[in-house]
Amino acid sequence: MDLADPRVDACIAACEAGLKRLLRTSRAEVFLYAANGHGAWEATIANLLAPGQAVLVAGTGHFSDSWALQAQAMGARVVGTPYVDGRPIDPAAVEQVLRDDTAREIVAVFVVHTDTASGVTNDLSAIRDAIDRAGHTALFVVDVVASLAAAPFDMDGLRINVAVGASQKGLMVPPGLSFVAADDQAQRVAQSNPHPRFYWDWSRRRSELSYRKFCGTPPQSLLMGLEAALQLLFLEGVDAVLARHRRVADAVHAAVACWAQSPGLSFFAIEPASRSVSVTTIRVGPGIDPDALRQVARERFQVAIAGGLGALTGQAFRIGHLGDMNPAMILGCLAGVEAAMLHQGIAFGQGGTARAVAVFGGRG
Ligand SMILES: Cc1ncc(COP(=O)(O)O)c(C=O)c1O
Question: Is it the case that residue 364 has pLDDT exceeding 80?
Fold first, then answer.
């Protein structure tokens, strides 16, 4: 489509409005990028942090490590909170680091809502309280890449200054489109940030012209996909979408709890309340090769499961259960994983898929 066609502008406007509705914000402005999630991370760092300035990246495992590495590479001074395997962020640790920052050098607190590697979802409300208790003015910046349209999120209610997301997970769109939603406070910080930037610069993106909004040609096919996906989400109803994710996750967790009666398999996320509604990470014991399991699941049973990331490489497999997902699809997946485990001679507690069926049937 001609990029000057008014339908392109209308599509972009619908995407911006839909994302704001999904994020539950009327305060923030949405900036879309022809980029993956790392692009949106880079946009956040480039706008908020000048080299030498400090950011607190709360430890969640692989994805907080990656974001911290990127901030460091761009010259920021990164402070962290300790990450304990399989545990969510400790809000008291966040509070302590902010209290210790008596010179108020920390510009922002970066939090990954759901770390896709660990399968742990963090308590954003507790982290908001921790920042408030410390009386610190740092911006609250949240990565919702793996949680948006799956787990509840309330940007304005929690006074989150920046939300960072991408197209390919709960939004059900192919990869390559990402976004940052930034409120006034964040935009004021960006305005006074002298760090040179161009493509990522929020102020350059503020235009009615779609060509300017994207600093060039808009990724039309992805935008049309996002507009359609948002329509589907609103047609189903956001509360219903979240409830569907909760139910599907409950079914997966019931199956994994059953499998984990065998000592070679366990939930990586230790606290049941922190287990994500988007992805479940299953740790495997010695003698179990998760990548061989994945290959068998994919090739023999047409079930795609993910591997362990970062420190969990070769030690875990992951079941993704977000986005375009319904009971029949996840039951097929769970049964396929059981078949693959049987094929591989992996011992697992019996009856997992039946437990998942019971959850859907209201008997779980
Ligand atoms: C929570 C989270 N943040 C950021 C990213 C980075 O996104 P991308 O791979 O699109 O660059 C991912 C990717 O899986 C993710 O899961």
Answer: no
C-beta separation of 165 from 145 below 8 A: yes
DSSP string for residues in 61-121: SHHHHHHHHHHHHTTPEEEE----TT----HHHHHHHHHH-TT--EEEEEEESEETTTTEE
Separation between Cα atoms, residue 102 and residue 56, nearest integer Å: 14
Ligand 1 center from residue 179 Cα (angstroms): 12
Q: How far is the CA of 200 from the centre of ligand 1 (A)?
A: 18
User: Which residues are bridge partners to 279 per DSSP?
Assistant: 320
Residue in 44, 57, 116, 322 to alter for ligand 1 test, most ligand atoms within 8 A of Cβ: 116
Which residue matches tokens 């660990």?
118
What six digits make up the tokens of 257? 């709890």
Closest CA to 219 of 167, 163, 165, 181: 167
Whether the Cβ atoms of residue 38 and residue 70 lie closer than 8 Å to each other: yes
pLDDT digit string, tens, across residues 289-343: 999 999 999 999 999 999 999 999 999 999 999 999 999 999 999 999 999 999 9
* pTM (two decimals): 0.98
**Average predicted confidence (pLDDT) for the chain:** 97
Mean pLDDT for 116-139 is 98
Nearest CA to ligand 1 atom 9: 37
